[in-house]
Amino acid sequence: MTDAGPLSADEATFLDVVRSGDPARFAVLTERHRRELQVHCYRMLANYDDAQDMTQETFLRAWHKRESFKGNAALRTWLYRIATNACLDFLDKRTPIPSELPGSETAHLQPYPDRMLPEDPQESAVARETIELAFIVAVQYLPPRQRAVFILRDVLGWPASKVAEALEITVAAVTSGLQRARATIREQLPDRRLDWQLPARHELSNDERGVVRSYIDAHQRNDLDGLIALLRDDLRFVMLPDSGVVTRTAKDAVDGWVAGGLFQPGHDDWRGIATTVNRMPAAALYLRTPDAPEYRLFAVAALRIVDGKIAELTGFDATGKPWLGLPTTLPVDEAWVQGTGAEA
After folding, report:
1. What is the pLDDT of residues 245-269, one digit of tens each?
2. What's the CA gap between 275 and 19, in Å, rounded?
3. Are both 51 and 181 inside the same structural domain?
4. In this protein, which residues make up the domain named RNA polymerase sigma-70 region (predicted)?
5. Are residues 180 and 215 part of one domain?
6. Mean pLDDT, residues 71-97 taken together
7. Mean pLDDT of 15-31
8. Which pLDDT score, from 0 to 100, does residue 139 have?
9. Measuring CA to CA, how many Å separate 129 from each of 102, 153, 199, 264, 311?
10. Are 174 and 217 found together in one domain?
11. Model pLDDT for residues 174-208, shown as the tens digit of each residue
12. Residue 193 lies inside a defined structural domain of this protein
């Protein structure tokens, strides 16, 4: 696998490290790529925990295969190739869920904490749209190797020849696989562009921050009418680990939550923290049950906000889990100030 251009200083240094067999220097040079490789693995696997594991597996494989690095490719390219194949091997072993079952594409889905994204998202090809949950879910509709082709070609911008070498397939197979992948993604994301390499906005807007604060406030005041007013009437909603995405009116959605016991006595004492996951506004919701000494993390709601209203809500059951660096409990007697949309 080759990259255009002369051998850079990084590759020359890495070749020297490979020849020396120094594990400490090897770790220093490869560690700088951890965050972007982890995002790449997350796009492949849709699961934060698995992405962490496969990133570590990538570094282990890189160390054991270090003699295969000849300086003909950029170090970053070489690591991406190893990471992609580690993910494909993992997917081959993951227990498959029949595609005809509702929610099979979200079976392994976890949110991704923004604090773990690369510091320079544009430089490391982390466009906002390609880390959003809707995009991650859409990619899971693709077979694993087709998924790899799509991510390497359309997200990372690799030429077909480089993708073919990385996956050990023909350029023709890359081209046909990409065509099929694009058709599937277009079907799953009909209102989104397919040029994922264009510049993307990364900061939340004031409107988005305001909606999250209002969403949290409605919970804390058990204001069902206020909550209904924040939701679009064609709300797309899923509460994981339950399967299936449903589209319902705002009132039907809230009525369903009430019927399930939320906002009823014993489930009506809320606190919330505004945060971000997957480059999306989100609310971490805490619930205190009667006689409990503190509020406990209950759910994380990732929100897609369109024209000042919540168009998509993906809820993650967070009970009993140390999620995303969020505090697991909040004290009852703390003078409460909501978050401002920054990372928790």
Report:
1. 687 899 999 999 999 999 999 999 9
2. 45
3. yes
4. 30-94
5. no
6. 90
7. 90
8. 94
9. 24, 16, 10, 36, 15
10. no
11. 999 999 999 999 998 877 767 776 655 556 788 99
12. no
Q: Pairing between strand 270-277 and 329-331?
A: unpaired
Q: Which domain holds residue 309?
A: 206-331
From the list 133, 155, 116, the residue with the least C-alpha distance to 36 is 116
219: left (phi over 0), alpha (psi -120 to 50) or beta: alpha
The type of residue at 112 is Y
pLDDT of residue 33: 93
Cα 272 to Cα 179: distance, rounded to the nearest angstrom: 43
Q: How many domains does the structure of the chain reveal?
A: 2
In this predicted structure, the answer to whether residue 336 has a pLDDT above a threshold of 50 is no
Separation of alpha carbons 170 and 172, rounded Å:
5
Report the SS3 class of residue 227: helix
Measured between alpha carbons, how far is residue 286 from residues 146, 268, 327 in Å? 39, 10, 10
Q: What is the mean pLDDT of the chain?
A: 86
What is the pLDDT confidence band of residue 244, given thresholds at 50, 70 and 90? Answer: low
- In contact, 240 and 187? CB cutoff 8 Å: no
DSSP class of residue 46 equals S
Burial of 194 (0-12, 13-18, 19+ CB in 10 A): exposed
